[in-house]
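Q: I have two molecules that I believe assemble together. Could you output structure tokens for the complex as a whole instead of separate predictions?
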Amino acid sequence: MRKNAALKVVYVALLVGLVAAGTAAAFLLRTGRDVTTSSAEAYRLYRLGVENERKMYPREAISAYAAALAQDPHFVMASLRLAALLSGRDPERARSLVTCATQRLDGLTDREKALAEIYKADLVAHDRARVAALLDDYVKRFPQDPEGIHRRGSMLLWQGKQDEAVREYERLLRIDPNFASAYNMLGYFWMQRGDAVKAEDNFKRYRYLAPDQANPYDSLGELYTSRGRYGEAEASLKKALEIKPDFFPSVGHLGTTFYSQGRYREASEQFARAAQMTEALGDRIQFAFSAGLALADGGEPGEAVAEFDRLVATLPAVDPELRKKLSTAVALNRALLLAVVGRVPEAETELAAAPEEPAPPGGKGDDSGEARTLVRAVIDWQTGDLESAAKILRAVIDARAKRGMEQGYYPNRDRIALAKVLSKLGRFDEERQVLAPILKVNPRFQPAVDLLASVGREGDGASVARN
Amino acid sequence: MTRELSPKARRGLILAVGILGVLIAGMSVVDMFIPRPYDGVVPDPYSSGGIAVRDLVPGGPADRAGLRVGDTILGIGHRMLNSPVEAPAELRQHNVGEPVRYLVRRGDDVFETDVVLSPTRLGTFAYLTYALLGFLFLALGAFVYSRRSGDAAVEVFFLLCVLFMLLFVCRLRPSSYYWIDYFVQVAGALALFLLPAVFLHFFLLFPAPKVFRFADPRPGEEPPARPLVLLQRFLNGSPLLFVLLYTLPPVFYVIQMTALTASKDRTGLVYGAPRANWILLADYLVLGLLALAHSWWTAEDRNVRRPVLALLLGTLGGTVPFVLFAVYFPALFRNERYLAWGVVPMGLVPLTFAYAIVRYRLFEVRVIVSRSIVYGLLTAVVTGLYALAVVLGNAVVSARAPLSSPLIALSFGLLVVLLFDPLRRRMQGTVDRLFFRDRGDFQKALLDMSRDLVSQLERPKLEALLTSRTSELLRLSRVDLLTPRSEDGSLVPSRGGGSPVALPVGASLARLVIERGQPVPLADLDVWTLDAVSREFLATQRQRGTKLLVPVATRGRLLGLLAVGGKLSEAELSREDLDHLTTIANQGALGLEAAALHEQLTRRAEVERDLEIARDIQVSLFPRELPRIPGIELLGVSRPAKVVGGDFYDFLHVDGSGTGRLALVVGDVSGKSIPASLLMVAAKEIVYAKAMADPDPATVFRESNRRIYEIKRRMFVSLGYFLLDPDALTLHYSMGGQPTPLLVRAGAAEASEVPAPENRLPLGALKDTSYDSRTLFLRRGDLLLFYTDGLNEAMSVEQDFFGDERLKASLVRHAEAPLGELADELLEDIRQFTYGAEQSDDQTFVLMRVVGENPAPPRRV
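A: Yes, here they are, computed for all two components at once.
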């Protein structure tokens, strides 16, 4: 009898244990939150913000994070992500957000604390090296966190460690094969490496996973443009704009597409639109420059600088520090444009007046050092110091190549410039060699085609003259 | 655990396990045949980084969408997939008819295409076969358990069958990724854990609990090593053995799954379970077979070896292909091509068990008319043949346009059914002969016995049926029949011997048995309070080895009692045995009743026959017609008291012709039987013979008396011999034992007795008796009444005699009436006197009236 009673107790205990375990598991699985917040609504808004961020819809992401903070003012991760998005337009506010958030780390998970340190290093200290080190540590501690791996991958790309970045993204995809952004990064990597097939493969996977997002179409459009598949590029970019009409990257890439086809006026218009749409000031400056340059290359040099001036004149009022950084960018880009159109003294003046500041965060393209070099190269070109110009331009091209940026709008532009200089120097073979990588990838890159056509004629004439 | 539960609780638990298993298996089958969204892609099961298209269903959704063999499906429904195992889960998220976007790589090109999903059923013919095999196992297990629950081996066998069913139905199937999958996969996994252990456990118990003796000390040999002894002790019933047996599979599973999960390597899974578990299953199966083989090898009883050999061969034939093709090939060589070769032969296992149970009565199961399994299978097979024939026929018939009417197809189908019915019956007969011969013999014997019981009218043979034949048929050690003895109705052995203690019908035990109306085990009687004679009777029965008392009764009347001993095999009497005994006893009661009735009828018939014969004899003693004597009126009347009477009268012309003197003989014999009648005949003939020789009454009587005395002592004849001379109108007579005739002279107002002789002893009373005679002179108008004592000794209900006076008065009263009327009136007067009383004696009389002229005075010579 006692044995029966003991057995019954054991069975009941097992049953209770099973029920308890099941309940606990169900509860834990049900909550499944990866961030700390007291509000379910705030969490929902936070996830919305992350989703929009992945889609590269910054405005929507900002709104979502702000709304999440309205629900839970102490929501640390929402603060940090909002800060990252605002850093390009309002770095002061971004800094403030990060500073306040990192003072409330009690009660957060270890992962959140680690991320907070990374944001602080990036947005407050602007210490990229520390960011890299923190990211390395973060990935070691949380090897299964897709976000961490993605950030580290991006960092590696920025550091020029392309191959390591690729490995990181491939690891991310093994963990989560549906992490769409990773395909985008890989696509760009392969595009830079010149492997259009792999690039297209990845971009198409990206598009497949996020068919309702503009960025995948934009990435594909960019790829098609770089390969001279302009029809597909336009269709893809227009699809992106169909999905999100204010998706300025696609507007910009459409400009690139037109530019690549030699449709300079249309290109300028698109670049101008993009400049007006973007809220990232650095991007605005770049688009403004591209708009001006397209006009210049299209035979309308007189309007090029005016267009640039028009576009940058509407930069919003920002804090003095940012203003200062923006001024550098504006000055350097203006100086370059002035140099391109032949207004060398103004270019010299502008160059001299540009403060020595690094490029504003969020900007695409060169930092100010490289920008100054380019200005100098063009000035030399315009003043007849072609050898110097050629040397500088070759150095810039090589530097980009070391960073893995051999292909693309900016590298192509630099090569075109160098080709023109070499053409003036009569070094037509070198000119062809400079243009060859462009045409190898995109045999329909019109500026290069045009130059090559003239090289053929001039080359023959020059060789006859020398002979 | 089950051992500590009550039998009822244990049965309930086992039943619950079975029901739960059936529910889950049923869900699995339904799940397999519910239409699912399908893309028509046959993937390479081992591809990674996408789903390599190995083949396409022609005309299927993927084919129509433009996919080709060699393509790689990278994503389904806007989700990337790494391997084919992820595809079904993805497809389940969509509906049939829904276009689903696929991402496909073909060479260097990556493109998207919409695939419109079509319905498909995951279940295949192969799966259906596996499921049927699984349910066959269940049916077998349920059948055996229903016949002999409570036996440990049978319980384990039932659980084994349930687990085999779950293995086949729930494990050998693809995932459907619906909620049913969860239960099914858990059940399948459970089956995989437990089946090997239960299989081995079963064969360690069956046909008898295995006892290892390899470490037993043998005389003249060195004692075995201690490890061997410990091992033997461990194997021979240590609870740890079974703990280990049952624990190993789940432990293996957990370890393997943990390792595979950590390495994210799905290639170590076979049908969703770790390879190691499958190999463990195979090892356990092999051990079980070895245990069975060992049982066969070491069995000494031929009756055990034969069925065990059949089982061993069948289980080998079913299990070895399974181990090879369904376990080792997929697990070690990743080759599932021969899966069906391994699973289908498993059907031999339940069929072998079924055959052994039916043919050899394995598990000591008494197979009583449960043909449902085999007949069901037979019907299913023949029905399948019907359906196939109908389908094929219709396919042929309807392929021709003019004959494509549904009516034609229906008619064809009916025709096939009709044609195949003789086939089914023929096959049924073969199955009967093959499987059920023993049972058929038994049934036939039982039927014959039943017929004999109700038709047997001879009591000794009936009793033999109830005793020796019953014990022979049911293989009992002994059956005694106790029947009521005639003296007091107590129940005693019908054939003598046996219990010296009789059981009175009124004893408490007898009443109890009657009330129960069914077999009563002696063991059940301990709780009853019985009287002393019942207890004594029971004690005696127990000493004789009686196990059961079966009432032989009809309509609440105990005609007998069967005292039944145990079975020759010493097994318990089964429910079927009790049912048979009840049937036999009931029919025996009918038989006994019929026999008793038959005896009664026979006796009555014999009595009636005797009476008939006696009646015939008696009738012959009366004259067919009255003699015509001029001047004399005669009338004779006889009313027998019973069927056969003892009185008679007759006339004899002693002078040899129809004229002359006439002798009137009136007689009465003691007794009313044939002997009495025969004596009367003899007496009559003797008297006649003597009278013919010398008609003198005294002489006739003397001679007749001596002769009658010699014929039959202690039987005598009352006789009156009256010699009438019609011419002289004299009546010369002697009498022996008869009442004195009455005389009413012409015109007299009273009747008188005629002068009686002095010696009137009945004839045959004494050896030598002399008789005297008298002579009466008659005149015209005289009326004489010759009668037997049935008239004057007629008794009323008040026990009064009619008497001589009333007789005389009645005679006088009606003296003037014609003789016929006179006779009627006389009888009427007696009837009125005796009204309501039964006639106790024959009433015989002769009336004589002298109507002629008085004779002339005698001439003197």
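A: One point stands out. Chain A has a mean pLDDT of 84.
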